[in-house]
Amino acid sequence: MAARLYHSRAAPYHGAMHTHVNSVGLLVCADPALNFSTPSHIPRACIDALPPQPGIYIFRDEAGVPVYIGKSVNIRQRVLSHLRTLDEAQMLARTRHIDHERTGGEIGALLREAQLIKAHQPVFNSKLRRIREMCSIRLGAPLPEVVFAKDIDFGRTDGLFGLFQTPQAARETLRTLAQDAGLCSVMTGLEKGRPCFARQIRRCQGACTGEESAADHAERVQAALAPLRVTPWPYPGPIAIVEKSDGLRQRQLVDNWCYLGTRRPRGKAPARFDVDVYRILARPLLQGGLTIEQLPV
């Protein structure tokens, strides 16, 4: 029944793509989503108010609870695409209002979306919804070890490689790298007993039997893990990322790969590493593509 709420009076969609011949004689396949009209139970005013600028939008149910939070560089265009998407009928059936919030640019929209999804846990957001406890592989001890963000500040610690949701995922990555690079399973902490199995089948260069020095093997371990390196926070304290869009200038505050909002919080605990913020910011920040203001520590 829900799907019928959003169907216009145009020809019904029965699962097949309709075709017609246009004015210049070309055979055109009509997108069935174009047959959908604006849901009548969502106030037209909140749809008409959507701006064509960057920001976030919130689909709310009858009680005002967010059921979906999204972001776009063009809020209006993105929300209208939701309203015409057949696969989102269930979400639209629960929606009674759509809010929006402009940001100064795409980075601000990404950061704000991640923050709100973690705060409200909308039922139709499959990504970013769960606050995860992350782990990583640390070098520096005699053997590589799996360490956890609850025990170590990832943003202030060097020598970390990879961000994983479980220790099993970290060890499986290390196992795959060991196989691909011909590393020793004993010297990577994946196996006990000497020689390791890989040495017995001539796939280990002999670190477990003394035929390869521990220093040489450690160097190869680091090279294999290098693409997964977690970059420590590259500033002594917080920064502001400055973005501008159609008269709106915004400063997104970040410290230790943790999003602080548009205003510096007072009296809060030190900023802790946030894996989602790291994944959003690491590449553009380290490549120098953002306008940055360093703030007092």
TrEMBL record:
Show the GO MF annotations. Answer: endonuclease activity
The protein's UniProt keywords, in alphabetical order, are: DNA damage, DNA excision, DNA repair, Endonuclease, Excision nuclease, Hydrolase, Nuclease, SOS response
The UniProt record lists the keyword RNA-binding:
no
- GIY-YIG domain location: 52-126
- Which domain of life does the UniProt lineage start with? Bacteria
Q: What is this protein called?
A: Excinuclease cho
Source organism per entry reads Pseudoduganella chitinolytica
